[in-house]
Amino acid sequence: MSETEQEKNAPCVKPGLGGELPQVIAAQMRRVNNLISRRMNLYSKANGVEDITPMHGWIMSYLYRNRDKEIYQRDIERDFSITRSTVTNILQLMERKGYIRRQSVAQDARLKRLMLTEEGARAHEQMMLSLRQTDEYIKSLLTAEENAEMLRLLNKLREGLK
After folding, report:
1. Total tally of structural domains belonging to the chain
2. How many C-beta neighbours within 10 Å does residue 91 have?
């Protein structure tokens, strides 16, 4: 390997507090995640759903995918690994914005089934459009082989980090 190839393949360094720090995979992934979020926000704004937080979007998607099931707050807590108080605040805001409604359950008045409203379903569709646009843009930056390899590596990392 020539010296220029070695330099090209060497880990990048950036000046940081206290000197030069090598860029690590986790830091690069964080940077890419931030850039993806910015891109998604651009599409979300264009699609009229810029006021929806990513967590609201994930919950709307979850409720949409599970619309034939009875979903309760505890399901959100468990499946998103977030605390009861956090979920309570998120759901209250989503309810105020008209994206979800809570329906009492006959067998237990304490339980409230979570359901998307028509407005929530429309917002979900626009969020999914923004997600598809973001995904298409990312895929356009890579070859078909690179896309396949990227997915393979991301799946491997996800499984290994569980």
Report:
1. 1
2. 19
